[in-house]
Amino acid sequence: MGIVVQKFGGSSVADLEKLEQVSNHIIYEYNKGNKVVVVVSAQGKTTNKLISEAEEISSDTNLRELDSLISVGEQITASKLSMLLNKLGYKAISLTGWQIPIITTNEHGNAKIKNINSDKILSLLDENYIVIVAGFQGIDETGEITTLGRGGSDTTAVALASVLDSEKCEIYTDVDGVYSSDPRIVKDVRKINEISYDEMLELSSMGAKVLHNRCVEIGKKYNTPIIVKSTFEEQSQGTRVDSSSIESHIISGIAKDDNIARITLIGLENVLGKTYQVFKLLSDNNINVDIIVQSFGETVSKDVSFTVKNSDLDKTMKILKENCEIVNAKEILSNKDFSKISIIGVGITNTPGVASKMFGALYDNKINMHIISTSEIKISVLVNSDEADLALNAIHKAFFGDK
Amino acid sequence: MGIVVQKFGGSSVADLEKLEQVSNHIIYEYNKGNKVVVVVSAQGKTTNKLISEAEEISSDTNLRELDSLISVGEQITASKLSMLLNKLGYKAISLTGWQIPIITTNEHGNAKIKNINSDKILSLLDENYIVIVAGFQGIDETGEITTLGRGGSDTTAVALASVLDSEKCEIYTDVDGVYSSDPRIVKDVRKINEISYDEMLELSSMGAKVLHNRCVEIGKKYNTPIIVKSTFEEQSQGTRVDSSSIESHIISGIAKDDNIARITLIGLENVLGKTYQVFKLLSDNNINVDIIVQSFGETVSKDVSFTVKNSDLDKTMKILKENCEIVNAKEILSNKDFSKISIIGVGITNTPGVASKMFGALYDNKINMHIISTSEIKISVLVNSDEADLALNAIHKAFFGDK
Q: Cβ separation of B82 and A65 shorter than 8 Å?
């Protein structure tokens, strides 16, 4: 029997009744003879409440103090869950980030895990303790409290599973797993049983909020299987994320990303390094560029289109215009309020007919594609935002049918 | 200019408005050129709320986890206060017990401070930081979180002031200082301007709740002046507790302690070691004995009276009767519902007329004294509980007059 890491999110630990449901999952694995490490988030809305109290004190919050403040949320959950397991007759012990310790970079509010000392946890597991770890937190090398930012507790869990060479990392949440598209928009979404790390990375960066990219990246690096499943559904099999991909569907999911703006540089001088100079200029100004598409027009010039967030459009246009000695395009066009629809699946571009099926579904619904971009495992198209939900449903139906 | 330690209790830090008042006291000392260390309690009723949440989980709370849970209260306050001071333009930084670290024994819920490493605080003070310390907490030598029990944040403050060789430790609270008696019972109580450590120890063990004995003991050991004053009264001079006692009144205070039972052993065999055997028997059974009075009757036997808490009376009587081969008294009498009234002042028993003034006040009010006990700095009498408030007022009036 091996080590199992289980992670429970804020809605799964919101109150005592839910903690009792959580303890059933823990006890189940423990009684099978496994060594169990549990990672918990703050209860319910605790973190948001603490953040808004901090904002009440100052609009320009001291990030070092904010980390010290909000890290208590996970510590509270860990202590309570350990109390409950002790009451139920199980040996359990809670650990904070600094007690392990989980060493991170010093970027308060968005720290990265550098190193986890597994000695303490391994020795407690050897004494048959169930080890409850406060997620989302660590300390930097000088002993300052840090937090890991969005998806932090997932990251703690997968990182712990990786250094402990755990057989799996279960991420318990309030949904039954990862779905083929957003169930709030698409009616007949399908649960994905198995998905590769790369597909999951594409799906989550495309707006599927179930798993944060950071933890999937760690899982991929250490080849740690991640299972996403429901805390509250007894029979939940969830979705397994691992290196294999024996999924029967070529397409594992369809995602949508809103609020996208497109900029086109017409007649950019076609000399070596020009494109590099333009995008370095944007990157130096902290503009996050997503899709880049380049089409050759003439031999001496080219057209380049790229997308940014709607909210970055004005700033981006200002920078481009102020640096015309670098950009040097004949014309700069821009439009906003696009959505990106992406289909994701391993080997997608090597499978005949996938792209044409996608484009056909859009054509049948008279939906214009403003940009097309493909990678090894995904095809993305830009459509008008007011047609995006229709596009998502049409493509989903084309690949998965009704029901 | 030296180091000043300021401590603010739960009611002084209950909300943002109160934190702003607290910051005024801090900034005042800082702007005078002092290095300021601030110790804070949990906000308002936070600790009680966390304890009741723990009790909801289990009636037999795991004390190790309870310490981890409740220690977050002070951490929250420390972070928030530091945020506020930063917002006001001052360099401030919060530290938890483990970040300093404050090393304690491992008695969870009632740990004793063994050692404080002052290096980190001193180096932050040298960088002109205002250092905000989460009170009430520490870690044991294995890195487990501990809490210091009742009066814990006061203890943290005075201990820090002592190791930092601070010029004073200010304990801010919601009263103006230490009073000559309980203002809820006695009308014309007087604020004490200056009191010795020993007198303060007697007063606080007698039921004056302002300062816990543990912090006064540390103050005495390291000769650290403690100033008790009001957070909210601008002109509060407070009460200074130090080794000198230049108080104009011989009597510094009058205290009352309720729920006392008296036991009398009649005709105890008068042989060497008999009294020791009896009280060792009680101590081995965790019975806390307060006053002991021995009166010689005949040459072969003696009568011994002593007091215990009302709640310990039945258990005490059972032990005495079950061990008659040790106790060996002709008769054992007991009564309950007494109160102890004590007058406290340095040199009290060397000052003629003090005892007779006290006894006279009681006689004038027809109040019987059931036991009299004196020490270097106090005289205690046992009266019936239903006459205790009258006794307290009568004695207070005799020494301090009306108004």
A: yes
Q: Residue A51: closest CA among chain B residues belongs to which residue?
A: B80
Which tokens in the block code for residue B340?
């102890």
Query: Two tokens at B165?
Result: 């060789």
User: In whole angstroms, what is the distance from residue B83 CA to residue B8 CA?
Assistant: 16
Q: Which of B19, B65, B86 sits opposite A83 (nearest CB)?
A: B65
| pLDDT tens digits in sequence order for chain A, 403 residues long | 699 999 999 999 999 999 999 999 999 999 999 999 999 999 999 999 999 999 999 988 999 999 999 999 999 999 999 999 999 999 999 999 999 999 999 999 999 999 999 999 999 999 999 999 999 999 999 999 999 988 899 999 999 999 999 999 999 988 888 888 877 788 888 888 888 888 888 777 655 567 888 899 899 999 999 999 999 887 778 999 998 654 445 778 888 989 999 999 888 887 777 778 888 888 888 888 888 887 665 567 778 889 999 999 999 999 999 998 888 888 899 999 999 999 888 767 667 778 888 888 998 999 988 888 877 788 889 999 999 999 999 998 888 876 4
Q: Rounded to an integer, what distance in angstroms lies between the CA atom of residue A310 and that of residue A240?
A: 34
For B144, the closest chain A residue by CA position comes to A99
Q: Is A85 on the interface with B (CB under 8 A)?
A: no
Q: Across the interface, do B83 and A96 touch by the CB < 8 Å criterion?
A: no
* Contact list, A74 vs chain B (CB under 8 Å): none
pTM: predicted TM-score of the whole model, two decimal places: 0.76
The percent of chain A in helix, strand and coil, each rounded to the nearest 5, is: 40, 25, 35
CB atoms within 10 A of CB A46: 19
d(CA B378, CA B203): 9
User: Largest alpha-carbon pair distance within chain B?
Assistant: 77
Radius of gyration of chain B (CA): 24
Nearest Cβ partner for B76 among A69, A94, A143: A69
d(CA A284, CA B42): 44
Conformation bin of residue B143: beta by default, left when phi > 0, alpha when psi is -120 to 50: left
Q: Do A72 and B68 touch (CB under 8 A)?
A: no
Interface membership of A215 toward B (CB under 8 Å): no
Domains of chain B: residue spans and CATH: 3-174 (3.40.1160.10)
Asked if B338 contacts B261 with a C-beta cutoff of 8 angstroms, the reply is: yes
CA distance B146 to B155: 14
Q: Which of residues 36-65 of B touch A (CB under 8 A)?
A: 50, 53-54, 56-58, 60-62, 64-65
Question: Which chain B residues are within 8 Å of A56, Cβ to Cβ?
Answer: 16
Cis status, amide bond into B225, omega within 30 of 0: no
For residues A307 and A310, give the distance between their C-alpha atoms in angstroms, rounded to a whole number. Answer: 9
Residue A369 near chain B (CB below 8 Å): no
First-residue to last-residue Cα distance in chain B: 39
The A residues from 60 to 79 touching B (CB cutoff 8 Å) are 60-62, 64-66, 68-69, 72, 75-76, 78-79
B222-244 in b/e form (b: 16+ CB < 10 A) is eebbbbbbbbeeeebebbbbbee
- Rounded to two decimals, the ipTM of the complex is 0.72
* CA end-to-end distance (rounded Å), chain A: 39
Q: Find the closest chain A residue to B92 by CA distance.
A: A65
* Interface contact flag, B66 A79, Cβ < 8 Å: yes
